[in-house]
Design brief:
This is VOC family protein. Pfam families: Glyoxalase (PF00903). It comes from Microbacterium wangchenii. This protein has helices spanning about 15-25, 75-85, 125-130, 135-145; strands spanning about 10-15, 30, 35, 45-50, 55-60, 65-70, 90-95, 100-105, 110-120. It is α+β, with helices and mostly antiparallel strands. It is elongated. The two termini are about 35 Å apart. The model has no long low-confidence stretch (mean pLDDT about 95).
């Protein structure tokens, strides 16, 4: 089970229990304990392990979306699960010159997730790929696809 790291994010949602279910389905998140509920039944504190990281969550009256990055082993599978969980893909999986494939999706609670998959690319190949119009177009697409999504 993951321990706390130097920086551990909080995700503040209108429906934290729904967020926990979504993250469990999409990223295989594991609850570190049962969520603590306040007197009104709202989540006051919850913790999930996602890989080697801890994400803390709680309910709020008004929320602002979180923006989070997660490295995954199988990006296509993550996107399939996210869409099955009613997420909206913002950026389709796109291979970038430095050896990452990136996709973004907005989950049902409004949080924007950057999901990355690492490719094995050596430095010399990265330099060549940086000059390749295909990767330049990919980067332009990634940058433009989030227009209006990030506030």
């Amino acid at each position: 089970m993951a321990e706390y790291t130097t920086v551990d994010p909080w995700i503040i949602s209108a429906d934290t229990l729904a967020e926990i279910a979504f993250l469990s389905d999409v990223f295989g998140a594991v609850a570190r304990a049962e969520p603590l509920l306040d007197a009104s039944g709202r989540v006051a504190h919850a913790e999930l392990a996602i890989g080697d990281s801890v994400v803390m969550l709680f309910d709020a009256q008004e929320t602002r979306p979180a923006y989070l990055r997660v490295y995954v082993d199988d990006l296509d599978a993550v996107i399939t699960r996210a869409e099955s969980g009613e997420a909206r893909v913002v950026t389709r999986p796109t291979e970038l010159a430095w050896g990452d494939v990136v996709s973004r999706f907005r989950d049902p609670q409004g949080h924007l997730w950057w999901a990355f998959q690492k490719l094995d690319i050596d430095f010399a190949d990265m330099e060549r790929r940086a000059e390749d119009p295909r990767f330049q177009e990919g980067m332009a697409y990634v940058q433009s696809s989030a227009a209006g999504e990030i506030t």
